Amino acid sequence: MTEEKSLLKKIREKELEVSVKIDDVRVEADRNIELAKRESLAIITSSEVEGKKVADEVFQREMERIQIEADQFQGQAREEVKAVREKGEKNSPTAIERIIAIVISG
Q1: Nearest 5°: CA angle at 33, between 27 and 35?
Q2: How far is CA 36 from CA 18, 33, 39, 41, in A?
Q3: DSSP reduced 3-state for 25
């Protein structure tokens, strides 16, 4: 009987040891999970910040490119207006003579 109790006692001690080890592993796993969550959040946050920075840089470059194009279009438009004005001024005397001739002949 004592041998059975002794054997039973050893089994209970082993169960207790295993239970403690399981608890230690569970605590360590929880710590690792929490650490992984914090690290993943840091990575996500860093990625979002970096992504916004890159997006802002691309946006700024495109705005500068668009402004250059707009300036070129304005320059071309000014040249066209100047050419039309010069052509109109060049033809003014002839146009005035024709108008006067039409009005006088009437």
Answers
A1: 105
A2: 26, 5, 5, 8
A3: helix
pTM of the model: 0.54
52-74 pLDDT, tens digit per residue, is 999 999 999 999 999 999 999 99
CA distances from 20 to 8, 9, 16, 17, 51 (A): 18, 16, 6, 5, 46
- The CA-based angle 56-61-63, given to 5 degrees, is 90
DSSP characters over 63-100: HHHHHHHHHHHHHHHHHHHHHHHHHHHHHHHHHHHHHH
